[in-house]
């Protein structure tokens, strides 16, 4: 079985967000896919099977299967368009979140994702205690989005991950206006056994709609200020978000399992 590791939302290896992509002829059982994911010890391992003109796609974290993952979708599109079907310019993935379309535009891979509906929530003492700083606003979609007014706070935060597990939301995203980009963000996912997600595509289905509305722009450039770092180009289209980024191939291997 072929496996590729691709760094997404970057043009060079050792930055962006790494995802392992397993290209299958048919589905493995879920226990085996989880074992591969845990063995890889990356934030996400994706598994894909061709189905007619589409590819079925599933995403796993070390904590279990999830319903949406941007960087692993971009990484999978990179693999299919460069290694499997190099003449392909568009690929459609069938997923738990519906059909996701990725278009290749030069060295960018543009993904069409659903935007999360953000509802304002109270900034509780538990949220402040978990993050270690008080946001100026907080919203809930699938994840908790906390907004600060200074990117320095976001870059220097050291949240208590055990306490983050106790607050609502699957992931925690912290964000602020950027000096060089429209927004600066970080994403934490201890509930999925991922302390900090290097670059979170699904997180920007929360982050991008907020800033596009706040800044009254059609599109924004967002920087994920994790230690690895990564850049996302985000455009809102109705209730959808188009996320674009680059990718770099780190490794190509054969997995040997019984």
Automatic annotation (TrEMBL):
Family to which this protein belongs = Belongs to the PhzF family.
**InterPro entries noted in UniProt:** Phenazine_PhzF-like (IPR003719)
Organism of provenance? Intestinibacter bartlettii
NCBIfam families assigned: PhzF_family (TIGR00654)
Protein name, as recorded: PhzF family phenazine biosynthesis protein
Q: Which UniProt keywords apply?
A: Isomerase
């Amino acid at each position: 079985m072929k496996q590729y590791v691709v760094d997404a939302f970057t043009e060079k290896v050792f930055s962006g967000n790494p995802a392992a992509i397993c290209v299958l002829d048919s589905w493995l059982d879920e226990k085996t896919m989880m074992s591969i994911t845990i063995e890889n010890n990356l934030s996400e391992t994706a598994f894909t099977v061709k189905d007619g003109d589409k590819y079925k796609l599933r995403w796993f974290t070390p904590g279990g299967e999830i319903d949406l993952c941007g960087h692993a979708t971009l990484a999978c599109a990179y693999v299919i368009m460069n290694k499997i079907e190099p003449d392909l310019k568009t690929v459609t993935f069938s997923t738990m979140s519906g059909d996701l379309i990725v278009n290749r535009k030069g060295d960018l891979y543009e993904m069409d994702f659903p935007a999360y509906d953000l509802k304002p929530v109270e900034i509780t003492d538990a949220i402040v205690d978990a993050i270690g700083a008080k946001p100026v606003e907080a919203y809930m979609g699938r994840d908790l989005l906390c907004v600060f007014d200074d990117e320095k706070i976001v870059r220097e935060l050291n949240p208590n991950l055990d306490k983050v597990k106790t607050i609502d939301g699957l992931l925690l995203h912290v964000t602020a206006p950027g000096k060089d980009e429209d927004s600066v963000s970080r994403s934490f996912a201890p509930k999925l056994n991922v302390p900090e997600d290097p670059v979170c595509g699904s997180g920007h289905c929360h982050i991008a709609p907020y800033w596009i509305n706040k800044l009254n722009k059609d599109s924004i450039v967002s920087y994920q200020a994790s230690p690895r770092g990564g850049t996302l180009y985000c455009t809102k289209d109705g209730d959808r978000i188009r996320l674009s980024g680059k990718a770099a191939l780190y490794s190509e291997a054969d997995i040997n399992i019984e």
